[in-house]
Specification:
The chain has a single domain, classed as Metallo-beta-lactamase, Chain A. β9 and β10 form a beta hairpin. The termini are far apart. The protein is of the alpha/beta class. Strands 1-2-3-4-5-6-7-8 form an 8-stranded mixed β-sheet. α6 packs antiparallel against α7. It is 34% helix and 25% strand. This is Dehydrase-related protein.
C-alpha cells in the first residue's frame, strides 16, 4: 500500500493542508506526492532530479501556492509545468499561480466559457488561467528524468484525460475514478464512454491509480468504479430499479450519498 510521507516532510506539509480536521499526504515513491484532504480534489506532485511537475491545482490558488512553496523551499525544485485532468474548478482554479499549463483542447475551451456570471453562481473569485498548451488524443512530455503520457478518454466530462507515469507505474485518473465516495456524475457525463475509459485505465497495468477524490487506489478500485458506472447506466436505461443500488455493497460502502442522488438527477432529468 502507499507509504505515508517521511516525518520531516509530513510535519511541513500537514501544517499547510488541513481541511475540517482531515489531513492526507501520501507518497507513492520517493518522487511522487499525492496531496488531498478527504473529499477535496487530489493533486499529484512529481519531482525529478532537478524539476517538478504538478497534476491538478485544486479549487484554491492559496493551496496551489502552498504546493509550489513546498517544492521550491523544501525540495529546492521549481514546478515547471502543470497538467489538468479536466475543466472542473476544483482541479483547475489553482492554475493562476503557475506559468506553463498543459491540458486537452476541450479543457481550454470549457475554461474559456467561465464568465463572471458563472463565477458568481459558484461563489468563487479567481482569475481563470487557460492552458498555454493543448493536446488532442495523446501527448508525450519529458521534463528531465520525468516522463508523462497524456491520454484523452472522455467519460466523466468530454475533456477527461489521464496522465501515465510509466516509470513509476502510476496513472492519475482525475474524476474518472473516485475511491470511498460516490462518483460525481454531471450533466455532460457520457456513461458508456466512461466505462470505456476505465477499461483503458485497466490496460495500463498501473500499480497505483490516483483518483480525483479519495484515497489512492489500485486496478481493483478501477474495476469497482467500472461496475458502479455500468449499474448507473442500467438504471438510466430502465433495466434496474433504484432500490437495487441501495442493496449493492459497491454503493453502500461509499460515503456522501448526496452525490449519488445528484448524479442520478443529472442523467435522468
Amino acid at each position: 500500500m502507499p507509504r505515508k510521507i517521511t516525518s520531516f516532510c509530513r510535519r511541513i506539509l500537514l501544517e499547510n493542508y488541513t481541511t475540517r480536521g482531515e489531513r492526507m499526504i501520501t507518497n507513492l515513491s520517493d518522487s511522487v506526492f499525492v496531496i488531498g484532504t478527504g473529499i477535496s480534489s487530489n493533486s499529484v506532485l512529481v519531482c525529478g532530479k532537478k524539476v517538478c511537475i504538478l497534476i491538478d491545482t485544486t479549487l484554491f490558488p492559496e493551496k496551489a501556492r502552498k504546493i509550489e512553496e513546498f517544492a521550491r523551499e523544501m525540495l529546492k525544485k521549481e514546478i515547471v509545468a502543470v497538467f489538468n485532468t479536466h475543466y472542473h474548478p476544483d482541479h483547475t482554479f489553482g492554475n493562476e499561480i503557475f506559468g506553463r499549463i498543459i491540458a486537452h483542447s476541450l479543457t481550454k475551451e470549457s475554461l474559456s466559457k467561465m464568465d463572471e456570471e458563472y463565477m458568481e453562481r459558484i461563489g468563487v473569485k479567481v482569475s481563470i488561467k487557460l492552458p498555454s498548451e493543448t493536446f488532442s488524443d495523446r501527448g508525450l512530455y519529458r521534463f528531465g528524468d520525468i516522463t508523462v503520457e497524456a491520454v484523452h478518454l472522455g467519460g466523466h466530462t468530454p475533456d477527461s484525460s489521464i496522465f501515465i507515469l510509466k516509470n513509476e507505474k502510476i496513472v492519475v485518473c482525475g474524476d474518472l475514478l473516485t475511491t470511498g465516495i460516490h462518483a460525481e456524475i454531471v450533466t455532460d457525463s457520457d456513461l458508456s464512454m466512461w466505462i470505456s475509459a476505465l477499461e483503458e485505465i485497466e490496460k495500463t497495468g498501473a500499480h497505483y491509480c490516483v483518483p480525483g477524490h479519495g484515497r489512492v487506489g489500485t486496478l481493483q478500485d478501477v474495476k469497482e468504479m467500472k461496475d458502479y458506472i455500468a449499474k448507473i447506466l442500467r438504471l438510466k436505461k430502465g433495466n434496474i430499479p433504484h432500490s437495487e443500488l441501495l442493496r449493492d455493497p459497491n454503493f453502500l460502502s461509499r460515503e456522501h450519498p448526496e452525490l449519488l442522488e445528484w448524479g442520478i438527477e443529472n442523467i435522468i432529468r
